[in-house]
Specification:
Shape of chain A: globular
Helix content of chain B: 25-40%
Distance between the termini of chain B: 57 Å
Radius of gyration of chain A: 24 Å
Number of strands of chain B: 18
Largest interface: A-B, 28 and 32 residues
Structural class of chain B: alpha+beta
Shape of chain B: elongated
Radius of gyration of chain B: 28 Å
Strand content of chain A: 25-35%
Largest sheet of chain B: 7 strands, mixed
Number of helices of chain A: 14
Largest sheet of chain A: 7 strands, mixed
Number of helices of chain B: 10
Oligomer: heterodimer
Distance between the termini of chain A: 74 Å
Number of strands of chain A: 22
Chain lengths: 474, 426
Amino acid sequence: MVVGEVAVETDVIIIGGGPGGYAAAIRLGQLGKSVVLVEKDKLGGVCLNRGCIPSKALIHTADQFHRLNDLGKMGIRLSQERTTMDFKIWQDWKEGIISQLNQGIAHLCKENGVTVVKGQATFLSDDRIGVETDGDFETYKFEQAIIATGSRPFVPSFIKVDGEYILDSTTSLQLQEVPSSLSIIGGGYIGIELGMAFAKLGAKVTIIEMADRILPQVAENLVKEVSRNAKKLGMIIKTSAKVEKASVVDGQVHLHVSSEKHGAEVVVSEKAMVTIGRIPNTEEIGLSRAGVTVDEKGHIVVDMECRTNVPHIFAIGDITPGPALAHRASKQGIVAAEVIGGLPSAMDSAFVPYVIFSEPQIAGVGLSREEAEQQGYGVKSGKFPFSANGRALATNETEGFAEVIVDAKSHILLGMHMVGADASNLIGEGILALELSARVEDIALSMHPHPTLTEGWMEAAEAVLGHAIHIVNK
Amino acid sequence: MIEFKLPDVGEGMHEGEIIQWLIKEGDAVAQDQPIVEVQTDKVNAELTAPTTGVVKKILFSEGDIVEVGTTIFTIQEENEMYVPENDSMEEDIPDGQSGNVKGMAEHITSKPVFEAGRVLATPFVRQMAREMKVDIQQVKGSGPAGRIIESDLQKFKENNSITRENAHHKDDRILQEKDPMKNADQAKGTENEWEERILLKGIRKKIAEHMVKSVSTIPHVTHVDELEMDRLKELKDQLKAYSDDKDIKLTFLPFFVKAIVIALKEFKTLNASIDEKTNEIILKNYYHIGIATNTNEGLIVPVIKHADQKTIFQLADEIRQLATQAREGKLSINQITGSTFTISNVGPIGGMHATPIINYPEAAILALHKMEPRMVVRDLEGVIRLMMNMSLSFDHRLIDGVTAVHFTNRIKELLENPIRLVVEMR
C-alpha cells in the first residue's frame, strides 16, 4: 500500500454479494447508509448462480420428466414413443432464470443506492479494505464492515475435482448431458437432492454415505419415505461406507469403497460427484490484518448482533457457525444492517427452518421428537399421512405425512415437520406458529382450506389432541 | 473476556477524555468498583467494573481522547462458572446501555441461541424488549402458557426502574432523568403549587458549575460603549455580491472578530489568564476566539482557532459551520475548548446592555448588542445613525479600567472606520 493514497470513504463495506451480503446492502441503503458491496463473481452468490436456484431448476425438470411415467394411468397417451431430455436446452433455460434474478438484484441494489464493485476484497487494516479488479487496486475506508464471503464445497485431499469426471455440486449443474451412471460421495441433502434428480433423468445413481443412513441430520422417520423412493428410482445406497481412493481409468471413475457390510469394493461409474460438506471462505480475505479471529473450523464466531470479536466488523452467513443456509444468511444480513443502522435487531430465534428437495420433499422447523425429549420436555406428537388427504390423492402425491411435536404440559408447539409433496412451501405455517409460540390447539382450531395439503397440519394437530377426523385415533 | 467500551454517559456525546485510571492492569476488581474517571464536554463520570474479575489490559492512557464505543479496557471474568445471585449475567449490564452501536460491556463469546433458551414471545415482542432495553429472559409472561405479551414488558420496565432509581442514587452524576410526566402527576396532589423537579445534568449542569467558578473567582467589571455602524454596513453591502459569488453568507461577526484580534494584539492582558495555583499571569500569543452560541440544550461556545490568521471570508465560513454543528450537537471537544477571548453576540435577539460573565479562565468577554437607527449628535446636530452598544466585562485583577476603555476605543476606531481595519489587517 502506498502511504497517502486516496481511499474511497464509505459508511459500510460488504464483502460478498450472496443472499446475505446483498440483503444487508439493500437494507443499509434503506437505512440511509452509504454502502459498497464487493463481489468477485456474480451477484447472488452460490445460492443463485451455483446452488439453490439452478439445482431447483434441475430438480423441477427431473420431476416433470419423471411424472410422465404416471400419465398413463390418468388417461394421457403421449404420441411420441420415447420421451427424451435435451440437457443443452435445459442449460439455456436455467441460465435465463439466473440472469433474470441477477438483473433483479443489480436493479434493487441500484435503486437503494448501493455501489456494487466487482473484485477481490482483502482487509488491509481494521478500517480499510483493498479491492483488486483486473489488476487495478482501489482502497476503501469504512466505518463498519460486513463479511459475507460464504462457503465452497469441501473436497478431501485424495480426490481431485476435475469438473469432467469428478464433479462437485457446481460443475454437476453445468453438465451438457445426463451421465449414464453417477456415484455420489456424501448422502447429505445436496447429494440426495441432486442424486434423485439425476436418477429421475435416467442416470444410474449410487450414493456412498459414511453415516449409517442417508440424511443423517434429519429425523429418521422422515428419511424413511425418501429412502424408499430412492430404491424405487433404482438408486443404490451404501451406508457406513467410506471412499478411500478415487481414480479415472479409461474414461470411467473408479471409487475404492470400504464398508463393514461389503468389505472393500470398487464402484465404477461414468461420473462421480463429491457432496461431503462445505467449508467457509475465510482464508484469503486478510482477516488477521483486521484482527478478526476464526474458530478451529475456520468459522467466524459472532454474537446475536452478528458482530465479530472486532465490534465494528460483522460476519453473516456460511462463514459463521451454524447451518449453511441462504435464509439464515439473509436474516443475519438484515440483522447486521439494522444493528449498524442503530436499530435493536438481533438473531433471537432458535427456529431456522430446513427444506430438502428430495422425493418426496422434507421440511421442518423446531425440535424433533428426540431433541425435545433430550431437552427434558414431556412430549406429545401427532401425525397425519397424506394418503388420507383428498388433495394428495387427486394430485397423485400420496406419500409422506405431517408431524407435530408438542410440549405435553402446555401444549406449546415445539416442532413441526413434514415429508411429502410441496413440504417446502407448507412449512411456512409451521414457522409462523412456532415464532408466535402457538399452542397445538391454535392450529387445530384454525379453519384450513379444503382440499389442500395444509389440512395435513390441522389433522396432525387434531391427532395430538386425539380427535383427527380423517384417521382413526388410537 | 469482556471488552469494556466507552459508553455514552452524556446525551449524544461522541468522545471523552480519560482523566484518571483508578486501577492498573492485573488488578482484581469487584463488580461496580470504580475503574476510570472520564470527562466529556458535558459531564465527568466514574465508570465502574461490569463484572468481578481481573483487569487484563488498559488500552488508553490518561489524557487520551477516546471515541464512544471504543474498547478502553478488558476484564477477565473471575470464573467462567461464576453464577451471580440473579440467574442471568445480562442483567448486570447497566440500564440505558443497549448492545448496539453505543454498546457497553458486551460478552464477546457468543451464546448460541439454542443455549440461551427459547423465550415464549412473538418476534415483535422480542424486538420491543430490545427497544425498551429489557432483558426478556427476566420477564415473567402473563399470556397463555406463560407467553410474554406487550403489557408484561411495560410492567417489568416500571417495576424495574423503581428499584434501579434507588440503586443508582449513590451515583447521582449519571442518574437517569425521571419521567417529567410522572412528576407532574404526583404534583397534582399538592393542589395548585405545581413544581417540577428536573435533574440538573448535561450541558445545563456544566454551565452552572462554570458560572459559579467564574463569578466566585473573578472580580467582574463591565464597561459599555456604543458604535456607529453605518460605514461598516456600507462595506459589508459592497462585499455582498462578491461573497454571494463564493456562496458565503457574510455577517458583521467576522469583522468584529478581526477588529477584536487586532486590539487584543495591542492589549495583551485582555488575551490572558491568571493561574491562581502558581500565582502567574499567562499572556497568550495565540488568538482563539470563542463565539457563544445558543442551542436547544443550552449555550455552548465553539472556538475559532487562530482567528488572526484567517480572512474575513474564512471566518464567515467557519462561524457558519461551527454554529450548524453546535445546533446539531456534533461538535468535538477540540472545537469547544481552548478559547482565549469570547464574544457573545446577543444583538440579533435584542437588548441594550448586559453584564456578561467571563468564560473562565479568560480575562474578558465582549457582548454585542442590538443594531438600530438612533438619534445621535454629530457636529452639534441631531442625526440618525445605525448604532450598536457593546458591553465588555473584564477581570479587574488583571485589567485596569483605563486599559479596558482603551481596548474598546481601539475596537470602536477600527469598526467605525473599516478602512483602517482593512489597512491593519494581517
